[in-house]
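Let us practice reading a record.
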Amino acid sequence: MTIRLRAHHLLCLLTYVGKGYSPAFTANYDRVAERLSRGEDVLLVSGPDDVCAPLLDEPEPHCLNESVVERDRLAAQDVEELLAQSIRVGASLDLDAAILARMRQAFSAGRVRKACGGCEWNELCSTTAAGGYSDTLVHRSASPGKG
């Protein structure tokens, strides 16, 4: 299977520790984190994705706001530069152990954080990164034959 993610969630998943907007959101994100950890590929999408799904029942889901679209644009730009590969709608991405480690190192160093400005989770993410990502729920083991 494939997990549909919008670009800024590529950053959010680096520090996801099981906290979220609501119990339904958190339970859903836990399932997404488990799927990512099992190695499912990511398909980049525009707008609401598999993480956003529980929020779409709200009267005015914030995931439809222009500020979130801008967050996606900034995240795509940073991650594309870091990984030197296309981070555009329709692109696929294998978040293997090496890519996650590289992204987390860049996140800790502040090199892929433009999209995080003004986010209510920024402090939690910074604390998680400073703690070495020890409590995060997205993990990948190095695969045999992969760098």
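A brief commentary: The helical segments are 9-15, 23-37, 66-83, 97-108, 122-130.
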